[in-house]
Amino acid sequence: MLNFCVDVFADEIASYLSTFLLPEYFRNMGLERIDLNPKTINRDGTQPLRVTYSMPGRVEDLELFPEEHAFRIIRSIFPLFRIDDVQFIPDTSMWLWDGEKVTIYFMMKNEKTEPSGEIFPSEEVYLSFSRKEIFISFEVIQEYLAAQMGILRMDLKDDDAVYWDDSCGGVVYRNGNVKIQWILASKDSLDDILRFLGLDMVFLQVKELADSQIEIDLFSSSFVPEKGLMIPLRIRK
Q: Does an H or E element contain 30, and which?
């Protein structure tokens, strides 16, 4: 499962608001404050973000609800952002703030990446029947996660290294103000990256040639320091 987090700072929210059609009674008023006080956060992360407009003798508050504004704010940063292809993550926060920035959380509606068509060297990616394992390097995982940003039309910035995060039980990749968490939470968590790498067909071919029952032991997967992800295979004749 791929979870996305996008950090949006106050000046970026202000830029979005400058293009927003305000109610008529806000005419001639200027933006005074965006309330990012963390004390205003409620438990489920669905609360509206309050912004304040003022002019001499008047003050008005406006509430921005995540369902209407969160993805539009992201599109104000990434103009080609594909809003129709994303959704909020069920049963978790839509957005939260910490005094400096708002973090918006979402996932893709359909995680089905087309094969990259790239031929990866065996030191980067391989499936081994004799070793009973699949190996995917950090570099290749990073390429896959960067491809997800491309699918959603989010511009790539400077890459940070991919790393394992015990707190979420998965891989974390940050690119600019976007963070992707690739969580190995279910048996189909590897389906999309195997398709991206072309290993899905290799896996089926090995099963047929070996005439064995081969299963991916996802929950025994481990990271090899400075190398990548090692995924054991269970093989039964």
A: strand 30-34
